[in-house]
């Protein structure tokens, strides 16, 4: 379970399969490869058709489990192969050798170093151009983080930290819930919003090189590096005037 996102650049694979179908097939492939890797590490050398595991499916509030074979998931993902060559020259693929680089995901739960990293990237000075825009946006858009707070209250399913971290300036305080709101709870991210987020996080500035944070947090968890990939995707989308479709 996590946050799925896709760069909204039309292409033959999307036209042929549809975005949802592509995402589901990529997930099937990733799950199959992960299960098979664990099986091999544990000395299980059976063919993929004989390696099975259970998945839970929520049907109208009822949790049902079903057995799935690794080979079945690989077969489901096989339709991607015929469309992978079309990704080779697509700028949204960003040279991903496996193709479909326009799609990626961030796993839940969001780890503490991920939230600390994001907060550390915000402007150090509210008096700077980026800081002024940031404080103005917080006032104008009223990102209260309510949905993220509700998610956080559900144990460690979505956030590892039960209490939202925060960052304070002389005239402003923002919580991790509010930051999550402005990044993931605004619907699909239009290119203008992506550019604004990149300014807030120090990737872009108005007419000058963005300053590095005074006290940057060094990310360590895989989750934090997934978030960095998302931020890089925002920068690409903003530079190309493309939207980013988000499902989290």
Topology overview:
Elements lengths: L1 E6 L4 H6 L1 H23 L10 E8 L2 E8 H8 L25 E5 L4 H10 L7 H13 L4 H7 L13 E4 L2 E4 H9 L6 H10 L21 H19 L3 E4 L1
**Count of DSSP H/I helices:** 9
Tell me, rounded to a whole number, the average pLDDT. 91
Largest sheet: 3 strands, antiparallel
What is the tally of beta strands? 7
Strand line-up of the largest beta sheet:
4-1-7
Strand fraction equals 15-25%
Q: What percent of the residues sit in helical stretches (DSSP H or I)? A: 40-55%
Principal-axes shape call: globular
The SSE order reads EHHEEHEHHHEEHHHE
N- to C-terminal distance: 9 Å
Give the domain tally.
Answer: 2
SSE class: alpha+beta
Radius of gyration: 20 Å
Poorly predicted segments: none
Give a written overview of the molecule:
The structure is a single chain. This protein is of the alpha+beta class and 248 residues long. The chain folds into 2 domains: 9-103, no CATH class; 112-247, no CATH class. The protein is built from 9 helices and 7 strands; from the N terminus they run βααββαβαααββαααβ. It has a 3-stranded antiparallel beta sheet with strand order 4-1-7, covered by helices on one side. The chain has a two-stranded antiparallel sheet with strand order 2-3. Strands 5-6 form a two-stranded antiparallel ribbon. Strand 2 (52-59) and strand 3 form a beta hairpin. The longest helix is centred in the N-terminal third of the chain and has 23 residues, at 19-41. The protein is globular and about 60 Å long.
């Amino acid at each position: 379970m996590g946050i799925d996102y896709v760069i909204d650049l039309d292409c033959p694979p999307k036209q042929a399969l549809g975005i949802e179908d592509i995402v589901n097939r990529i997930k099937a492939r990733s799950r199959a490869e992960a299960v098979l890797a664990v099986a091999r590490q544990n000395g299980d050398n059976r063919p993929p058709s004989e390696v099975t595991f259970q998945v839970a499916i929520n049907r109208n509030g009822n949790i049902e489990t079903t057995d799935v074979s690794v080979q079945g998931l690989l077969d489901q993902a096989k339709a991607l192969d015929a469309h992978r060559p079309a990704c080779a020259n697509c700028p949204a693929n960003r040279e991903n050798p496996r193709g479909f680089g326009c799609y990626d995901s961030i796993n839940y739960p969001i780890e503490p170093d991920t939230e600390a990293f994001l907060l550390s990237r915000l402007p150090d000075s509210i008096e700077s151009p980026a800081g002024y825009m940031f404080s103005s946006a917080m006032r104008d858009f009223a990102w209260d983080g309510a949905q993220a707070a509700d998610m956080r209250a559900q144990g460690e399913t979505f956030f590892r930290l039960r209490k939202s971290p925060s960052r304070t300036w002389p005239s402003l305080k923002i919580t991790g819930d509010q930051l999550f709101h402005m990044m993931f709870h605004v619907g699909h991210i239009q290119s203008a919003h992506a550019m604004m987020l990149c300014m807030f996080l120090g990737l872009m500035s108005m007419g000058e090189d963005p300053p590095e944070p005074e006290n940057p947090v060094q990310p360590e968890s895989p989750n934090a590096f997934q978030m960095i990939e998302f931020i890089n995707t925002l920068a690409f989308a903003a530079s190309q005037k493309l939207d980013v479709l988000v499902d989290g």
